[in-house]
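Weekly modeling sync, notes
Attendees: AB, CL, MP (scribe)

Item 1: holo prediction request
CL wants a bound-state model with Phenylacetyl coenzyme A before deciding which constructs to order. AB pointed out that an apo prediction alone won't tell us much about the pocket. Agreed to run with the ligand included and paste results into these notes for async review.

Input as submitted:
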Amino acid sequence: MRCDGVAEDCKDKRFGPWTLDFDEAFDRPFDSRWCAHRLGGSIDDIFNMTHHIAQYEEMCIMIVRVDAALERSQMYAQMVETGVTKVRSDVALTAEEQAFQIRIDAGVKIEAKDSMPENYRKTLIRQMSQHAHSEIVGQLPEANWITRAPTLKRKAILLAKVQDEAGHGLYLYSAAETLNVTRDQMTRDLLSGKSKYSSIFNYPTLTWADMGAIGWLVDGAAIINQIPLCRCSYGPYARAMIRICKEESFHQRQGFDIMLSLCRGSEKQKAMAQDALDRWWWPSLMMQGPPDAESTNSAQSMRWKIKLFSNDELRQKFIDQTVPQAEFLGLTIPDPELKWNEERKSYDFGPIQWDEFYEVLRGNGPCNRDRMRTRNRDHETGAWVREAAMAYAEKHERRVETTAQEESA
Ligand code: FAQ
C-alpha cells in the first residue's frame, strides 16, 4: 500500500511531497537513514518530524520491541500465580497441552487445522469475535457525522474510513470462522447482548471534533493494541491484523489531521477540539482493558502468546505516545496528575474511574442501549441483502453444476 501526501501542515516546511510504501516499511525495523532517504530530508530532520511519520515510526519501533518482548515473555511461561488468574504449571498440563505449549514457546504459528487445546480455541473465539463486533459497532458513532461533515473532502474521507472499519470486521469474522464457529453464531451473540464489544463505542459523538478525537485517540489506542497482535500465535488472526493495522494507521492520522485543522482555526474551533479531548481521553485509556491485577484473561492469553503485552503496558505506551502529540496540538490532557517521570522514562498519570468502565460493560454506558437497538434494526432491515446474496450463490452453484453436467454429457 502506498501513500502520497504533501506535508502542508508539517512543523518543518522542508518536508515537501512525500510517499511511504507501507508494505516496505512494515518489513523493516525503524531506520532513520532509510526514512531520511524516503522522505527527502537529513537524518537530523527525521527527529524533528511531526505527525506525518509519527505513526509509521511507532509501527516500526513497536515491531522491534515486540521481537524483544517475545523473548521476554518466556518469563510468563514460568508464571503460576498472577494474583488474580491461575495459570497451570507445566507439570499440571496434559502431554498434549505440554506439546502445544512447547510449540507456542518456540514461536510456531498455530494454524486452523492444527490441534489446539479447547480453551485456546475458545479464548481466541471470544477475543476475535469481540474484536470483530467492535469494528462493526464502531462504525456507528462516526457514521453519525457522515452527512454533517464540514467539506466534501472530509465527507469522502470519513465515508472511506467507516467502510474500512466494516472491512476489518469482515476479515476478523472470517479469521474467527477458521476456529469452527459460524459468522451467524457470532452475529447472534452480538445482537442478543451475549458477546461484548469495545466499551469506547458506547460514548456519544456530539461535535465534528469528535471525529478528530476518535481517529487520533481511539484508532491510536487500537493500533497500540493491534500491532502486537500481528505477531500473535494464531496465524489467521495475526495475518488479518497486518492489513488492519496498515489501515488503522491512516485512520489515526486523519483524526490527528482534523484536530490539527481545528487547533489552527478559530478560538471556537480550538475549544471544540479541547472539549473532544476532554471527553474522549479517559474512555480511550479504558479501551486497553481493566488494570492487570483485575484482568481475568491476561495471564493465560499471554502464556499462549495471544496477547504479547499486558493491558497496563499497552495503556502506558499509548499515554507516552499521545502526550507529545497533544502538546504539538496545543491541547491540554485533562489529567492534573499527568507528569513525566524521568526515572521510568514514562508519564505518571491520575487514577482511572474503573467504576465507569464496569458500568459501561454492564450495559449502562451513555449509548449502550442505543447502539444495540441500531445494530439490531440494521440487521433486520438488511435481511433482504443476505437473502439476495444467498439466492445469487444458489443460482451460481446451479449454473456451475449444469455446465459441468453438460460438459460431461
Ligand atoms: N471493552 O481479562 P481482560 C477499534 C472485558 S477495535 C469491553 O483484560 P482480555 C477499531 C474482556 O472482554 C477495539 N470489554 O480481557 C476502531 C473481559 O471480559 P470477558 C477493540 C472489555 O480479552 C476504531 C473482561 O473485560 N479491540 O477500536 C474491554 O484479555 C475506531 C476482563 O478483561 C480489540 O478488541 C473493553 N475495552 O483483554 C473501530 C483488540 N476491555 O470476555 C471503529 C483485541 C476488557 O472475559 C472506529 N482484544 N474487556 O467476558 C484485546 O486485545 C483484548 O481482548 C483486550 C481485553 C485488551 C481488549
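Recorded for review: The radius of gyration is 23 Å.
Action items: CL to compare against the apo run; MP to circulate these notes.
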